[in-house]
Structure formats: structure tokens, C-alpha cells
Design a protein that fits this description.
Layout (H helix, E strand, L loop, with lengths): L5 H34 L5 H9 L6 H12 L4 H6 L11 H27 L2 H8 L4 H12 L1 H16 L3 H7 L9 H10 L3 H32 L2
Helix pairs in contact: 1-5, 1-8, 3-9, 5-8, 5-9, 6-7, 8-11, 10-11
Length: 228
């Protein structure tokens, strides 16, 4: 990868893989959750929304502790790892994916929920009068109209996963090529006084953050123009 050493390139590659996989899973899992939260009339739906949003306010150490319990040898993660001869999902890439999905869920679900809620009932009622089934109306009407929410959720979910530190350090540790993602690599370089390497990764993260913020501002501007 050009002039980048393996110590720098490896965390970048691992972080991109983790963020891409996490975002894909969240779009698949988060879409039905967001649809239900936007359309359901259940009195307890806000309690479910609060559970989804918990990672926004929970300290990473608290969430990381409970994820370690779940992923550890005495938790469900240990039983699942036993299916292929493993002992735990903690300190594995699979464990990182699971933790990242939980930690980044509100950043994907909330924009999609807001987009679904903004559609209103009218487009779906029109689709029903044209004899479209609820499933067909969802895929042909709701999904296209909610596209700004999906774009925003994808960008936020990917960016939040890239920037994770506390959670990934707690449940993944610092294993090169396996769980050592960008944020952990920067911390490790600083601890070992490798300032040049830390600066390369930190500057890259700062540029990435700028691009994410600019993208979100442009998306909001475009959505506001469309909704006029």
C-alpha cells in the first residue's frame, strides 16, 4: 500500500472491514426495527426505542463489560464459539463485529426511523388503493422515499464504527491483524512514542471526520430542498 508500513496498513484494512460489515448488518437488522418504531402504535414502542438508544448514553466501559460477559466463555458467545471448537467470542474479530453492531445501532436506526416517519400515511394509502400489498408498498414506496435516511444512517454507522475506541479495546484487546483497529493502533503508537505513525493515522482520521461531517451537511441540505 504505497509507503505505508504493515503496522499502519493492517489496522486501516481491519477497520474498513469491520466498519463495512457492521454497517451492512445494521442496515439489514436496523431497517425492520426502524420501520416498526416509525409505524407501530404500541404504547411500549418508546421503551424499545430507549433500549436501542442506550449506547448513546452508556459509558463504553459499562457496555463493554456486559458485552464481555455475553461474549465470554460462560456466556452465549462461548456456547456459540464452541460450535467450531472455540472457547469465547471475546478478543476475536467476530466479537468486534457483534459489539460494533450493538454500539453503532442507534446511529443507523434513528435516521432511518425519522425518514420512515417523515413519509406519512398518504403514499402508502395511495399504494394500497392501487392494490399494492403491504410488502410491495414497503419495497417500492417506503424504501425509495426513505433513501436520505438510509444514506445518513450508512454514513453515521460506518463513521461511528471507525471511531470506536473504548468498546473495541475492552472486547477485542490489541491483537495485531485480528482486533487492532485504527483507534487502538493510535493509542498503541502514542504509548510507545511512535509519534510519526500516530500522526499519520490521527491526521487520516481527522480528514475522514471532516468528510463525514461535510457529507452529512450536504445530505441535510439536499433533503431539505427535496421536501420543500
Amino acid at each position: 500500500m504505497g509507503g505505508l508500513s504493515n503496522d499502519i496498513w493492517q489496522p486501516i484494512r481491519l477497520t474498513i472491514e469491520l466498519a463495512a460489515l457492521t454497517t451492512l448488518i445494521l442496515l439489514i437488522v436496523g431497517t425492520p426495527i426502524a420501520w416498526w418504531l416509525a409505524r407501530s402504535k404500541a404504547s411500549w414502542k418508546e421503551a424499545v426505542a430507549a433500549v436501542v438508544a442506550l449506547p448513546l448514553v452508556l459509558p463504553p466501559t459499562v457496555l463493554g463489560f456486559y458485552l464481555l460477559v455475553v461474549l465470554g466463555p460462560d456466556g452465549p458467545g462461548g456456547a456459540l464459539a464452541g460450535l467450531w471448537g472455540g472457547r469465547t467470542l471475546a478478543f476475536t474479530f467476530e466479537g468486534l463485529v457483534f459489539g460494533s453492531v450493538i454500539y453503532s445501532m442507534p446511529f443507523v436506526v434513528q435516521p432511518i426511523r425519522n425518514a420512515f416517519a417523515a413519509i406519512g400515511d398518504r403514499p402508502l394509502e395511495v399504494a394500497a388503493t392501487l392494490r399494492a400489498s403491504p410488502t410491495r408498498a414497503f419495497w417500492t414506496v417506503a424504501i425509495p422515499l426513505a433513501r436520505p435516511g438510509f444514506l445518513a444512517g450508512s454514513v453515521l454507522g460506518f463513521a461511528h464504527t471507525v471511531g470506536e475506541f473504548g468498546i473495541v479495546l475492552m472486547i477485542g484487546g490489541n491483537i495485531p491483524g485480528k482486533t487492532k483497529v485504527l483507534s487502538v493502533a493510535i493509542f498503541d503508537f502514542v504509548e510507545t512514542s511512535q509519534w510519526h505513525e500516530a500522526n499519520i493515522l490521527a491526521a487520516g482520521m481527522a480528514a475522514f471526520a471532516f468528510v463525514v461531517i461535510l457529507t452529512m451537511m450536504l445530505l441535510e441540505k439536499r433533503t431539505a430542498r427535496i421536501n420543500r
